[in-house]
Specification:
By secondary structure, the chain is α+β, with helices and mostly antiparallel strands. It is built from 13 helices and 15 strands. The chain has a nine-stranded antiparallel sheet, with helices on both faces. The chain has a four-stranded mixed sheet with strand order 7-1-15-14, covered by helices on one side.
C-alpha cells in the first residue's frame, strides 16, 4: 500500500471534510465546452456575449460577459480584456483591483435581492499548458455566482465525508497539497502585514484545514477597501517565494511541456522560509511520500489518472469568497494535482462542492431568467456608492 502523502492525523482531517460530488449545472443547447479560446479581445467579442467593457489603460481592461459554459443558472463572469495577457489579479493595477472589488460587492447586493447566496471565485495557473489546468483561460477571470436555496439544500442533504469517495475523487476535490498549503500560508503570511484580510488559524475549522482562510471583517463591503488589492499581492508574493524555495531546495530538473522537476534528497532545514517545526516536518513527509510515477508519468494518461498522478506545472491556487455562519471569508486553496479551480470547486455553507457542468439543458424560461439577472446586475453597479471606480477607474 502506498504511503499517505500526509501524516495520519492530517489525513484523518482530510477524510472527514464534508464534500459534495457533484452539484449539477445545466448547459446551453448544443454548446460544446472548450478552453483557451479567448486569446485576443476580438475572441472575447466573437466567442462570448460581452455585456460591458471598460478600459483602464491602453493595454489593461475588463469585460463583463455571459459564461458560455455555465457553472450555475445565476452567474456572470469578469475577465481581463486588455491587449496584454494578465493571468493573476496581482498582475493588474490597483485601479483594476478596486473596480473588481466594487463589482463583487455590488454582485453580493444583487444576489440578496434575488434571495441568492453569492460566491465569487477565480484561479491562478498560467504555466500548465499540457495537462488539464485549473485556469483554462489564461487571462484573469472571476466567476460571480448566485447559489439558490435549492442548491444549498442539496448540499446540506447530500454532502458526505471525503473518506466515502474513491481515492482519485477525494484527491480531485480535497487534495493533500491543499492541506499542506493551508499550513505553509499560516507560517509565511505575516498577519501584521495585512491591511484588510484577517487570517483564520490553520486547522481551526474544516475550511481552514483545506484552504488558507481569511475573514473579511466588514463582509462583502471589505472587497471595496483600498488595502485589499495590496493584501492579495502580498499573499501571492509570499506563496511565490515559498513555492520557489521548495522547488530550489527539494527538486531537480526543469518544467516544460510534459516535463516536471523530480524530488531529490534534501534537508528540510535548508528550506529558506520561516516554517514551524510541524509544518516543515509535514512538508518533508509529503515530498518524500511522492511515488516516482507521480512525477514521471507522461502524456497519454486519461484525465482521471492525469489529475491524480501528474502535477500542474507551477504555483497554482484557487480563490473562493463565500459566506459561512453569517460571515464572509476569502479562501485560498493550493493545487498540485487537481484540475478543479475556483469555479470547479465552490464552498457552500462550509462544504467543499464540486460543480459538474453540462448536466441537462437550460430551458427557454431559465435562459430568460439568466439574461434578466445579468441585465439587472449591470443596473445595480451604476447605483453602487463607488460606481465611479468601475466606470472611471483612473479618475
Amino acid at each position: 500500500m502506498a504511503r499517505p502523502l500526509l501524516p495520519q492525523h492530517l489525513e484523518d482531517r482530510r477524510m472527514n471534510l464534508r464534500v459534495l460530488d457533484s452539484l449539477p449545472a445545466k448547459g446551453y443547447p448544443g454548446y460544446v465546452n472548450r478552453t483557451g479560446r479567448l486569446r485576443t479581445v476580438t475572441h472575447l467579442y466573437d466567442r462570448t456575449t460581452v455585456l460591458g467593457h471598460v478600459s483602464i489603460s491602453p493595454d489593461e481592461a475588463y469585460a463583463l460577459t455571459n459564461k458560455a459554459a455555465p457553472h450555475a443558472l445565476y452567474e456572470i463572469m469578469v475577465i481581463s480584456a486588455g491587449t496584454t495577457h494578465r493571468p493573476g489579479l496581482h498582475d493588474h493595477s490597483p485601479e483594476f483591483g478596486k473596480a473588481f472589488g466594487v463589482m463583487a460587492d455590488s454582485f453580493a447586493d444583487h444576489c440578496r435581492a434575488y434571495d441568492l447566496t453569492p460566491v465569487v471565485s477565480w484561479s491562478y495557473d498560467p504555466k500548465t499548458l499540457d495537462r488539464e489546468s485549473i485556469q483554462g483561460e489564461k487571462r484573469f477571470h472571476a466567476h460571480l455566482v448566485g447559489r439558490t436555496k435549492s442548491e444549498r439544500a442539496t448540499v446540506a442533504e447530500e454532502a458526505v465525508r471525503a473518506g466515502q469517495l474513491s481515492t482519485t475523487r477525494a484527491r480531485r476535490i480535497v487534495e493533500e497539497a491543499s492541506i499542506l498549503g493551508s499550513l505553509l500560508s499560516a507560517d509565511c503570511v505575516d498577519p501584521d502585514a495585512l491591511r484588510v484580510l484577517v487570517p483564520v488559524p490553520a486547522l481551526s475549522t474544516p475550511t481552514a484545514t483545506v484552504t488558507a482562510q481569511f475573514l473579511l471583517p466588514n463582509g462583502w463591503e471589505s472587497l471595496t477597501a483600498p488595502g485589499l488589492h495590496d493584501d492579495l499581492v502580498y499573499v501571492h508574493r509570499k506563496l511565490r517565494r515559498t513555492y520557489d524555495e521548495i522547488i530550489r531546495t527539494c527538486t531537480t530538473g526543469t518544467t516544460g511541456l510534459w516535463e516536471r522537476p523530480v524530488v531529490r534528497e534534501f534537508d528540510a532545514d535548508e528550506i529558506g522560509v520561516p516554517l514551524r517545526t510541524e509544518t516543515r516536518a509535514t512538508l518533508a513527509h509529503y515530498l518524500r511520500a511522492l511515488r516516482p510515477e507521480i512525477l514521471t508519468d507522461r502524456k497519454g494518461s486519461n484525465r482521471s489518472r492525469g489529475t491524480h498522478v501528474y502535477p500542474l506545472a507551477d504555483l497554482a491556487y484557487a480563490v473562493t469568497i463565500a459566506e459561512q455562519n453569517d460571515k464572509v471569508y476569502l479562501h485560498l486553496r493550493t493545487n498540485l494535482f487537481s484540475d478543479l479551480g475556483g469555479a470547479g470547486i465552490s464552498i457552500i455553507d462550509g462544504a467543499i462542492v464540486k460543480t459538474k457542468k453540462g448536466v441537462g439543458t437550460l430551458r427557454a424560461d431559465e435562459i430568460a431568467a439568466r439574461n434578466a439577472f445579468q441585465a439587472e446586475y449591470l443596473g445595480q453597479i451604476y447605483r453602487h456608492p463607488l460606481a465611479s471606480r468601475v466606470f472611471f477607474p483612473r479618475i
